[in-house]
Amino acid sequence: MTAGMHRRFLIVGLLAWLSAAPSPASAQSSARLSDALVARPEVRDALAFIDRNFEQQVAEWIRITEIPAPSGQEAARIAHVKAELEKLGLTPTVDGLGNLTARRPGTGGGPTLVFAAHVDTVFPVGTDIGVRRAPGGVLRAPGIFDNSASVANMLQAARAMHAANLRTRGDILFVATVQEEIGLKGMYYWLERNRSGTDLIVALDAGLGPVMYGALGIYWSRMVFTGAGAHTNNSRGQPNPARAAAQCITDIYTVPLPAPDAPVGAVYNVGGLMTGGSVVNAIPQEVTFSVDLRTVDPQLIQTLDAAIVAKCEAAAAVHKVGFARQWIQRSEAGGRPEQLSERRAHPLVQTAVDVLRYLGVELPRGGEAQATGSTDANVGVLNGVPSIAVGRSRGGDPHTLSEWSDIDSARIGTKQIVLLAATMAEVASR
Ligand SMILES: [Zn+2]
Model-level pTM? Predict the structure, then answer.
């Protein structure tokens, strides 16, 4: 990066800082990436530590991936994280739900910065989670990308700061969350108990790319159709919940969505889970299907949800069966980009963009930061805590058996954590 670029960062940063009204503690300093900051010996040492020890980091990344950790059964992975952070002289605690928190004390006067990496995966016990090395510097395994890469990155960033004696004014909290994949449950639980004393949240959970500062609203519903049931021999003319469910699914697809190129979109997926009767020769007494509805627009998500439920109610009435919507999960939308313009200008967002650029990550012009996200950061966004989600590595096919990650880009994901700590928790003077 050139000196001119740094000057631009500083000017942009200053403007953002003036307009963003951060907490009093963090308002006192510039907390930005600069030539001076990256030239500091402890920052350089920490970054060099990551390069020097990258092979060990990859070995640990593989090891973490091969510890089964379905949502709700993360204890073994948490135990690994705990043991490693204890080696750095930290004293991690595990809360009632299983989230781990390790506080790295600052020298005082800076904001408390939380790094949160979820340890759980969507893969049930018994899934083959063995890691294979593939050509092109790639690792393949369920969970290798989402999210064991972030867990390994976070541990290595903690080691790098420890080895380089990089001190910050603000406290840094390393948090390993549980049950992220089933509705951000771990983070909701955690923030409820740690809201005071949390100034900034960085969720480590995405592909390297744009900084996400919003929250994708996610409504997961189970549509339940019920009836008396009847033996096939007596089925003629009898109400059938399956027929109502089928009618409803067909009708849901008539609910209009924003055009694919609209500034704010919406998506839904019907039938990710479906259940019906238990025998061939009877009308089922209960038929259910799921709806997964998503948009960042708080009004739109409610309008669409109401329209979908109305279709189900109408189908149930026509077919003379019962209907109830059960919530599986409900996470509110953070807002349209124009509703979040102040959030976008926050130093946390702008600094994260600067850090990625400094590390050579190409970001789309105008799309460096996006008002969306479906990570632990959503919980912070919805609770008014300046929060972002940033990436771990380059990879793809998350939540599938063919999940993969590029190896070398995890180095960038890790350096990013160190630089965010040094800027946002404010590296302490010596
Ligand atoms: Zn994830």
Answer: 0.86
